[in-house]
Amino acid sequence: MSDFSVVTADWSNVADRARCAEIRETVFIQEQSVPVEEEWDDDDATSVHALALDLDGTPIGTGRLLPDGHLGRIAVLKQWRGLGVGAAIMNALIAHANDAQLSGLVLNAQTHAIPFYESLGFRVDGDEFMDAGIPHVAMYLSTS
Ligand code: COA
User: Fold this and answer.
1) Ligand 1 atom 42, closest CA
2) What does the DSSP 8-state code read for residue 101?
3) What is the 3-state secondary structure (H, E, C) of 3-38?
């Protein structure tokens, strides 16, 4: 297993915000060509942000949980994929949701990532749709 940790980041802290933003800039804006104006929104200020760090404290992944139970912006740097970082970010956010007694966890998954979310217990709910030029499906966390 590779060595990394997942911490909670505070969006109101300039350094924390820069570390989360750096990952999303690399993965969503540069790699996936998501328009800059669609990447950043008001939900960042009210979300719980998870930040994955390597042993040197360098950011390698991030994700967020909105107060209404929406998970999103899950991103891991290419060289760190397939090593459990994304699952660790998701599990940290799900733990926050449980602590906050949020009952329904939902997300909009890029279709290529459906197996990733299914491995964490999420199930597809509804038809495919386009967002930021990328095919998505709604998913919810199945508790059964
Ligand atoms: N296809 C099939 N299974 C996948 C997968 C894929 N593309 N990516 C991950 N998985 C599975 C793993 O095999 C693993 O299963 P296991 O527990 O049975 O071994 C599980 O999901 C967890 O994988 P993990 O290594 O934690 O995932 P990751 O660190 O590579 O992160 C993403 C997954 C999707 C976050 C990462 O690929 C990524 O950042 N992609 C680009 C950004 C993106 O598309 N984000 C999703 C937006 S909805």
Assistant:
1) 75
2) T
3) CEEEEEECCCCHHHHHHHHHHHHHHHHHHCCCCHHH
How far is the centre of ligand 1, averaged over its atoms, from the C-alpha of 117 (Å)?
Answer: 8
Strands in the chain per DSSP E = 4-9, 48-54, 59-65, 70-76, 106-110, 122-124, 129-131, 134-141
Nearest to 96 by CA among 59, 48, 30: 48
Model pTM greater than 0.90?
yes
Q: Are 6 and 50 in contact (CB under 8 A)?
A: yes
With vertex at residue 82, the alpha carbon angle to CA 77 and CA 88, rounded to the nearest 5 degrees, is 80
Buried b (16+ CB within 10 A) or exposed e, 93-109: bbebbeeeebeebbbeb
Residues 105-119 have pLDDT tens digits of 999 999 999 999 999
Minimum-distance ligand 1 atom for the alpha carbon of 31 = 41
Phi, psi for 51 (deg, rounded to 5): -130, 125
10 Å CB burial of residue 83 (0-12, 13-18, 19+) is middle
What pLDDT shows up at residue 144?
57
